[in-house]
Structure formats: C-alpha cells, structure tokens
C-alpha cells in the first residue's frame, strides 16, 4: 500500500509506529521499499554521507533533485520526501514554493521537508497551499550549525523545551503532516508527541516519538566520520563490503577470477583469429 501524507496522520490515530530511512539512490530505494519502510527521506545529509562535505550547507537544489529522482524511481510504496537544502527556502516565501515544487515536479517526491519552527510557519503554509505536503524539522537542525555554534542537543532547559513545543504547534497549525524531532531529550520529545495530532518522527529523540528515522549509512555501519550517540548499527555492512572488496582484489591477483563460468565462449574454430 502506498504511504502518503494522509496515511502518516492515520498511523498516529491508530497508534501505529512509522519508520523512515534516508535514501539517496535507486538500488537502495528498491531494497528499502521491498523491506516495507514507510518513508524514504532524500535528506540533505547526502552532502555528508554521499558527497563527503563536512556539513550540509553546500548542498544545492540540483543535488537534491538529482538524488530525489533516483530514489523516486525505486520507491513503489514508500512515501518519498525531498529535503529542502540550505537557502532554498530562506530567501523568500516565493522561492520556497518554487523550490518545493521542483522537488515534486522534477524530483518525483510526494512531500518536502524543511528545517525551522515558528519562523518557518508562513513558508510552510504557502507550500501547503500549493498542495505540497510538508514535514517540519526542529531541534538540532543541521543547517543552523553556524548559528548554533556546532551540532548540539537542543531543548535541554525548560525554556528551550517550551520553545520547541511552541515551534511544533506552529508547524502543525501551518499544515505540516509530520515533524522530525532531532536530538531532543526524551521528556520534551514525549510532550511534543502527546501535544500534536500529527506524527513526530524522532532521530535522537527517544522512544516516545510516533516514528523513527535514521541515516542509512549510520545504521548499516557505512559511515564512520561521526557516530552520534543515538545510532544503532543494525548491521556492519562496512566490514562486509571491505571484506568483499579485499576478496575481489585477491581473486584477481591470484587469477581465480574470472573463472570459466564467468567467461564467454568463442564460437569460431580454434584456428580462427581475432585481429
Ligand atoms: O538530512 C537528513 O538526513 C535529515 C534527517 C536526519 C532527519 O534531515
Ligand atoms: Na536534512
């Protein structure tokens, strides 16, 4: 069954958990879609895990559209959410609607995500008016790294937690169908989740969120530049891949690959020569 912004809201009403994984390419999208994950987020985290940047700020609309296209072609049932990159929605509400529209029209996503709380409410409402479902994102919003002075857990004081709750409510009122809570202590994440009628999707926000999201390279052990506290390695694919690459190199060097089964037979006579 196709997951949509509507089924996301319904899942919360039914008390069902939601799963989301980041995804950036076709082959992985197919694997994830077959596994039954509810949503594939083409995150601007691709700047770090796919492109090797130190943070997400350099990611462009062209980068996002390119990867969103790849993921959309591989996702049958999962809801594809395209992340709006830094500065694609801050310059004006007009720019935000145009760029959100590009992720849908060109990228093939069914929804977009953008970072920010009350400050973004007007922008969210305008995108929603264009019939584009919007997922909010509050807490540690990586595009604010320079404003925050680094990647830090948010909402650790009563005042900060109250601000996050207010932000979440403003996003719900503006029309968001879901909101990502990133790096927030369990208690405020729980309070936000219980205060909203739209689902919360947590990453480093504890078990009371309505859903969870992880960067797939993190959960597969494929990215070791940074390993946040909230990551569980569900498989050590890094070791599996390194080992496979090593065995390939060894097999080529010792001449055991390619063997006869991997080699095409020449149909001519033995004396025939290819010049
Ligand atoms: O870009 C991303 O991967 C994200 C998730 C971590 C929520 O925004
Ligand atoms: Na992101």
Give an overview in words.
Pfam families: Pantoate_transf. With 275 residues, the protein is an alpha/beta fold. The chain has helices at 5-14, 26-35, 46-49, 61-74, 93-105, 121-129, 145-148, 158-174, 186-195, 216-219, 237-254; strands at 18-22, 39-42, 79-83, 111-113, 134-139, 178-182, 200-203, 211-214. It has a single domain, classed as Phosphoenolpyruvate-binding domains (TIM Barrel), CATH 3.20.20. The chain is built from 11 helices and 8 strands. The chain has an 8-stranded parallel β-barrel with strand order 1-2-3-4-5-6-7-8, surrounded by 7 helices. The longest helix has 18 residues, at 237-254. The protein is elongated and about 85 Å long. The termini are far apart. The model has no long low-confidence stretch (mean pLDDT 96). Sodium ion binds next to loops.
């Amino acid at each position: 069954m196709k997951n949509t912004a509507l089924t996301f809201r319904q899942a919360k009403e039914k008390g069902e958990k939601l799963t989301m994984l980041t995804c950036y390419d076709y082959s992985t999208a197919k694997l994830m879609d077959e596994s039954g994950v509810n949503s594939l987020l083409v995150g601007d985290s691709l700047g770090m895990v796919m492109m090797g940047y130190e943070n997400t700020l350099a990611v462009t609309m062209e980068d996002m559209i390119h990867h969103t296209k790849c993921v959309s072609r591989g996702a049958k049932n999962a809801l594809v959410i395209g992340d709006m990159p830094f500065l694609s929605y801050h310059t004006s509400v007009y720019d935000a609607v145009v760029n959100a529209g590009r992720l849908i029209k060109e990228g093939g996503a069914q929804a977009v995500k953008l970072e920010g709380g009350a400050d973004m409410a007007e922008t969210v409402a305008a995108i929603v008016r264009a019939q584009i479902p919007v997922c909010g994102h509050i807490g540690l919003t990586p595009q604010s790294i320079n404003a925050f002075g680094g990647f830090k857990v948010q909402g650790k004081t009563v005042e900060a937690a109250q601000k996050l709750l207010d932000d979440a409510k403003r996003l719900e009122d503006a029309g968001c169908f879901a909101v990502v809570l990133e790096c927030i202590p369990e208690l405020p994440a729980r309070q936000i989740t219980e205060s909203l009628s739209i689902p919360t999707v947590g990453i480093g926000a504890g078990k009371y969120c309505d859903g969870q999201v992880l960067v797939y390279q993190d959960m597969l052990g494929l990215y070791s530049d940074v390993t946040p506290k909230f990551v569980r390695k569900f498989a050590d694919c890094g070791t599996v891949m390194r080992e496979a690459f090593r065995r390939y190199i060894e097999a080529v060097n010792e001449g055991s690959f390619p063997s006869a089964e991997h080699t095409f037979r020449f149909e001519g006579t033995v004396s025939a020569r290819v010049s």
